[in-house]
Design a protein that fits this description.
By secondary structure, the protein is α/β, with parallel strands linked by helices. The chain has helices at about 50-55, 85-100, 110-125, 140-150, 160-170, 180-190, 210, 220-225, 245-255, 280-290; strands at about 10-15, 20-25, 35-40, 65, 105-110, 125-135, 155, 190-195, 200, 235-240, 260-265.
Length: about 300
């Protein structure tokens, strides 16, 4: 077991505008003035999803891995109808204000990518670079249907191995090459041990309430929000087997983002790449290299 002293991050908190205590992991780094990297997870995920990528990038970069409200160590919302992208945007704006961050790189997976695009519409001049992980302005109907089928279902397991096997059964098409060790690692990211000794999902089941209302997944016209990222370093990662981001949408994103953007398909995975794949690692390195380059005149 890793002691608190030996952890590569510090647990830190900020307050939302409606008074919630929200959590992030702060991986210290970037002493040379590099902008910090904000890591925004998917709908049912949390800061642990970014542990490997954060440890890889620190100490060269400061990495802040976020728990959205109702996930991980962040407080659950009093009003479940606040579990929507526009509220998450306001929460991140409060974090930026709290930490006095005036320039940053945004990594957004799935829901986190939607929040990233919304951030671009209001914080364009502060965004130094963007990673959109298997998400875009248009979300495929099949993927949305699949997510609606499982989000908010309060399942539990007696052991970590049971949880891993359940994940393998449900997601074999998403990660066909995973071993039981990989499924166990995913279980540790998705679940927690509760006071009754059960392995339970680490999010407030009420996040499903607004998600099931058509239109709440993406808010406003997301193509217009994407346009705010045009001309800046950007990386669009797409899982080869994704049912959320189509190849057609990814190609259209590349055209609108311009010459400093790159679209990369991660082979043999669905929604969403974990950012630990060799293809993802190389693409992230290229993105951050562009962030460090002088802006074109």
């Amino acid at each position: 077991m890793v002691s608190e002293r030996n952890r590569p991050y510090a647990d830190a908190y900020w307050e939302s505008r409606d008074g919630l205590r929200l959590h992030y992991r702060d991986y210290a780094g970037g002493a040379d003035g590099r902008p910090p990297i904000l890591c925004l997870p998917g709908l049912t995920r949390n800061a642990r999803d970014y542990a490997t990528v954060a440890e890889r990038l620190a100490p060269d970069w400061r990495v802040l891995a976020i728990d959205f409200r109702g996930r991980g160590e962040s407080q659950a919302a009093k009003d479940p109808m606040s579990y929507v992208p526009l509220t998450y945007l306001q929460d991140i704006e409060a974090l930026l204000e709290d930490q006095k961050i005036d320039r940053f790189v945004a990594f957004g997976t799935s829901l986190g990518g939607i929040v990233t695009m919304l951030l671009a519409s209001v914080e364009r001049t502060r965004i130094a670079g963007t990673l959109l992980n298997d998400v875009g302005p248009e979300i495929e109907a099949a993927g949305l249907s699949r997510i609606r089928g499982y989000v908010g279902k309060n399942t539990w397991h007696p052991t970590w191995l049971h949880a891993a096997r359940a994940l393998a059964d449900a997601n074999a098409d998403v990660y066909p090459d995973y071993t039981i060790e990989a499924w166990l690692a995913m279980a540790k990211r998705l679940y927690r041990l509760n006071s009754a000794g059960r392995i339970v999902l680490d999010y407030d089941m009420r996040i499903a309430e607004p998600f099931r209302v058509p239109g709440n997944e993406a808010g406003p016209d997301m193509w217009r929000t994407l346009d705010a990222l045009a001309g800046r370093p950007a990386l669009v990662l797409r899982g080869e087997r994704s049912d959320i981001l189509s190849e057609k949408t990814a190609d259209a994103m590349a055209l609108r983002l311009g010459g400093r953007a790159e679209v990369v398909t991660v082979p043999a995975v669905g929604h969403a790449p974990t950012l630990d794949e060799p293809t993802s690692i190389r693409a992230i390195s290229r993105l951050l290299g562009k962030v460090l380059e002088p802006a074109p005149v």
